[in-house]
Amino acid sequence: MELSKPYKGKGKRKIKKMPFTVKGYIMYYAFFWIVIISIYLVNA
Which domain holds residue 34? Predict the structure, then answer.
């Protein structure tokens, strides 16, 4: 069980790495747009 646990965790981390990166990129892009809209509304 001790040997199986790190192996399972490593596999889970590898699979979860890609969706997490995509989710992080979308969140960063959304945050960037919120900042642009906020600046635009203050200037307008």
Answer: 1-44
Provide the number of structural domains found in the chain. 1
Which pLDDT does position 34 carry in this prediction?
Answer: 96
Do you know the residue count of the chain?
Answer: 44
Q: Which residue has the tokens 């699979």?
A: 15
What's at 26, amino acid-wise?
A: I
* Predicted TM-score of the model (pTM): 0.45
User: What token pair was written down for 35?
Assistant: 């900042």
Rg of the chain on CA atoms, in Å? 19
Q: What are phi and psi of 3, to 5 degrees?
A: -80, -30
Q: How does pLDDT run across 5-24, given as a tens digit for each residue?
A: 555 555 555 555 666 678 88
